[in-house]
């Protein structure tokens, strides 16, 4: 079983084949976001509701959704079940988003599905994410999956995955501040949107949540006739016994939620063996999360921390692993993200940070951020020379980040956006040297 990157051999990942869908879908960072379920429900009804042929496990939250989904899917696949997995975003190929068992959807199959659904997409004015969701549901139906694991794309209440009507099991990853322009300005508002995945009679599992989130989830469960169970993070010894490739303290939370989901699957849907469950979870890779890579022989730590909560977890990981001393940050932060919050979480005195461009995307540069940070943090930002423009070219930033004065040492971390990591992997700029 594999994670976002696919099978690997000899330490190298075999990514699913890239597929050019530029004539059918916009790029990842400039797609249309229009909330609502009416369009996708109408399109699915026109197809005879193919999603009704399988049961779904839905995972909502802000950080950790993909990890929980991959762990659950890995365990189900290890038992020989035909499990579908739908995730977003992708790193290298659109095909990463749709999987049955160990097989990513083939590029020809995905393209054919989107072309087939073209008239329906136009009739119902489907957004790109809705088109992909319909394609995934139809693919799962035609592949006769037993059940599917669905990662919520944005929010929950009005997310396209919520159009699936048979979601007896729901899981919540950590909820934090992100996408406030769509979900609300505070944690309680964001939590209400994410709690919208709860449906009558479903059983939900959640790890620890911020104080503002807990009463919102409890009230939503009571209002909808759902049951919510709070799951404690795995103790260090139990987590280590799982032998997961995913690292970081946050994975203690994600693994605990995944195991609670699987225990409920075993009790209600399909008996699962503990040993096989652990083997399936241990076989999962999830690239772009605290991953060790190299650039021109220099070690890098790569992590897709794209909001303040994720940035705090990344900074904590550096401290927990006695990674003291300065950090050189190569950061690509999309213009719609909370760059101030991310930088406040990451930067410490003595660090240096290069804000880089992400292809086909509007990104933060150093100039508008200097006045919004404390003086020590602002001093970390490396300003670009006028000849280079507002943001650093990635190759130049990496070259400067790995260049340490004689007798000094600093770790180099590439972060800020999964889109940046995907771009670097796709272009072959960085090389994975270790599984997560």
Topology:
Blueprint (H helix, E strand, L loop, with lengths): L7 E2 L2 E2 L24 H9 L8 E6 L4 H14 L4 E4 L11 E3 L2 E2 L2 H10 L1 H6 L4 H15 L4 E5 L17 E4 L7 H4 L3 H9 L7 E4 L7 H11 L2 E4 L5 H7 L7 H19 L5 H9 L8 E5 L2 E5 L5 H13 L6 E5 L7 H8 L5 E4 L11 H4 L4 H4 L15 H8 L9 E5 L2 H9 L4 E2 L4
Parallel strand pairs: 3-7, 3-8, 4-7, 8-9, 9-10, 12-15, 13-14, 13-15
Antiparallel strand pairs: 1-2, 4-5, 5-6, 11-12, 11-16
Characterize the structure shown:
This protein is of the alpha/beta class. It has two domains: 8-282, 3-Layer(aba) Sandwich (UDP-N-acetylmuramoyl-L-alanine:D-glutamate ligase); 291-432, Alpha-Beta Complex (Protein-Tyrosine Phosphatase, Chain A). It is globular. The protein contains 17 helices and 16 strands. Residues 1-12 have low confidence and may be disordered. Helix 2 (65-78) crosses helix 10 (250-268), helix 2 (65-78) packs across helix 11 (274-282) and helix 12 (308-320) packs parallel to helix 13. It has helices spanning 38-46, 65-78, 107-116, 118-123, 128-142, 180-183, 187-195, 214-224, 236-242, 250-268, 274-282, 308-320, 339-346, 367-370, 375-378, 394-401, 418-426; strands spanning 8-9, 12-13, 55-60, 83-86, 98-100, 103-104, 147-151, 169-172, 203-206, 227-230, 291-295, 298-302, 327-331, 352-355, 411-415, 431-432. The strands form three sheets. An eight-stranded mixed beta sheet has the order 6-5-4-7-3-8-9-10, sandwiched between helices. A six-stranded mixed beta sheet has the order 14-13-15-12-11-16.
Q: What is the subunit arrangement here?
A: single chain
Work out the helix count.
17
Instruction: Report the uncertain regions.
Output: 1-12
Strand content is: 5-15%
* Count of structural domains: 2
Structural class: alpha/beta
Strand order of the largest sheet: 6-5-4-7-3-8-9-10
- CATH superfamily (homologous) name of the largest domain: Mur-like, catalytic domain
Tell me, what's the shape? globular
Classified by CATH, the class of the largest domain is: Alpha Beta
């Amino acid at each position: 079983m594999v994670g976002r990157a696919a099978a690997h051999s000899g330490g190298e990942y075999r990514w699913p084949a890239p597929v050019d869908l530029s004539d059918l879908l916009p790029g990842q960072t400039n797609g249309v976001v229009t909330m609502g379920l009416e369009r996708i429900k109408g399109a699915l009804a026109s197809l005879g509701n193919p999603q009704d042929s399988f049961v779904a496990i839905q995972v909502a939250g802000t950080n950790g959704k993909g990890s929980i989904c991959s762990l659950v899917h890995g365990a189900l696949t290890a038992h020989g079940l035909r499990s579908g997995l739908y995730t977003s975003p992708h790193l290298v190929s659109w095909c990463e988003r749709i999987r049955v068992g160990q097989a990513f959807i083939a590029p020809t199959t995905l393209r054919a599905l989107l072309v087939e659904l073209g008239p329906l997409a136009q009739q119902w004015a489907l957004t790109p994410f809705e088109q992909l969701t319909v394609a995934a549901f139809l693919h799962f139906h035609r592949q006769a999956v037993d059940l599917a694991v669905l990662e919520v794309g944005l929010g929950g209440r009005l997310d396209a995955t919520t159009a699936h009507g048979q979601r007896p099991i729901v899981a919540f990853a950590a909820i934090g501040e992100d996408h406030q322009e769509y979900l609300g300005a505070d944690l309680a508002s964001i939590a209400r949107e994410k709690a919208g995945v709860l449906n009558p009679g479903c059983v939900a599992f959640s790890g620890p949540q911020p104080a503002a989130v807990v009463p919102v989830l409890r009230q939503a469960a009571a209002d909808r006739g759902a049951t919510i169970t709070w799951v404690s993070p795995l103790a260090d010894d139990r987590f280590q016994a799982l032998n997961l490739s995913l690292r970081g303290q946050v994975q203690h939370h994600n693994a605990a939620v995944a195991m609670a989901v699987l225990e409920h699957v075993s009790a209600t849907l399909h008996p699962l063996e503990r040993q096989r469950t652990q083997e399936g979870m241990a076989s999962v890779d999830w690239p772009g999360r605290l991953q060790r890579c190299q650039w021109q022989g220099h070690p890098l730590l790569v992590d897709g921390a794209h909001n303040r909560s994720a940035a705090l977890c990344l900074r904590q990981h550096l401290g927990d692993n006695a990674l003291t001393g300065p950090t050189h940050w190569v950061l690509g932060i999309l213009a719609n993200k909370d760059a101030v919050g991310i930088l406040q979480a990451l930067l410490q005195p003595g660090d240096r940070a290069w804000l880089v461009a992400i292809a086909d995307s509007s990104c933060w540069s150093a100039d508008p951020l200097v006045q919004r940070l404390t003086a020590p943090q602002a001093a970390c930002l490396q300003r670009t020379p006028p000849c280079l423009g507002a943001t650093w070219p990635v190759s130049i930033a990496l070259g400067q980040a790995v260049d340490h004065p004689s007798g000094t040492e600093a770790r180099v971390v590439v972060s800020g956006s999964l889109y940046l990591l995907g771009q670097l992997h796709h272009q072959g700029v960085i090389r994975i040297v270790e599984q997560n």
